[in-house]
Design goal:
This protein is mainly α. It contains 15 helices and three strands. It has one domain.
């Protein structure tokens, strides 16, 4: 069950905090069961489809993007607002130089098929897959994404959630529910997360971040072990450093096309 402790919510059993399972469904269940759990019931699948339609429509909402960026600037996460073109090019660089290679390396080290893992993520929450930066994502899409994926560094996402009035509080509440087994997506997220201790570590960091945004973030083991990924993480691991990088992207369509066509490895000279 959950109890309020000092203004926070703690997951407890009769003997204290609920222990993490020795192995998650992601590693114990057969593939067909994982697929069924990720899809959910017909009602849940229909809800995911509606969320996806809303998310796709939101990608064209320039006013919403300007509002989100304005709130982030007001929080001190950037000095200058990148143009929409710079955000597109920067997000593609984030995807091809950071998100995809770091994830592929991690799942390979765990003996997990990366393509099947991505399929499970799409089946669980397709709306979370279409916006790499999260600037146009709804609060609960961001929260679900953080709970669904063992993050290389969750600081970026928590800084993004700070732009919602109740974003961090809701993040904590939902992780507590996940640990208690009462979250509505507990079964589908359990079909994806392979690390049984991830949500407990995440809750600890969320609480630390709420007390002090400068609190050290847990960096995923494969990133810490790689000199190259560690260097890229210092760029894309936090929102301010990511936005600084986005602001260095080309401002013209021709420049953007040239950058995407010719830059094949992370351009460390820009940071």
């Amino acid at each position: 069950m959950a109890m309020a402790v000092g203004g926070e919510v703690e997951v407890v059993t009769g003997m204290g905090q609920a222990p993490a399972p020795a192995m998650t469904d992601r590693l114990a269940a057969p593939p067909w069961r994982l697929v069924l759990n990720a899809v959910g019931s017909p009602r849940e699948a229909a809800g995911k489809a509606r969320k996806l339609v809303t998310a796709v429509a939101g990608l064209a909402n320039g006013a919403a993007l300007s509002d989100r960026l304005g709130r982030l600037r007001g929080l001190g996460y950037m000095d200058a607002v990148p143009t929409r073109l710079q955000l597109v090019v920067g997000s593609l660089d984030m995807l091809r130089f950071w998100i995809a290679p770091a994830a592929r390396d991690y799942y390979q080290s765990k003996g997990i098929d990366f393509r099947f893992h991505q399929l499970l993520r799409v089946l669980d929450d397709p709306a979370s897959m279409i916006d790499p930066t999260g600037f146009l994502s709804a609060r609960d899409v961001i929260i679900g994404h953080v709970m669904q994926v063992v993050h290389a560094n969750p600081r970026y996402d928590l800084e993004l959630l700070a732009s919602f009035e109740d974003g961090l509080a809701e993040m904590e509440s939902q992780v507590v529910a996940m640990l208690a087994g009462s979250h509505p997506r507990a079964r589908s997220i359990g079909a994806i997360v392979e690390d049984p201790g991830y949500h407990a570590r995440l809750l600890e960091y969320v609480r630390a971040f709420r007390r002090d945004p400068a609190a050290s973030a847990p960096v995923r083991e494969n990133v810490e072990a790689s000199g190259h990924l560690s260097r890229v993480e210092r760029v894309f691991g936090t929102l301010p450093s990511s936005l600084r990088y986005f602001g260095k992207m080309p401002r013209t369509v021709l420049g953007a096309v040239r950058h995407l066509a010719t830059v094949k490895t992370f351009p460390f000279h820009l940071v």
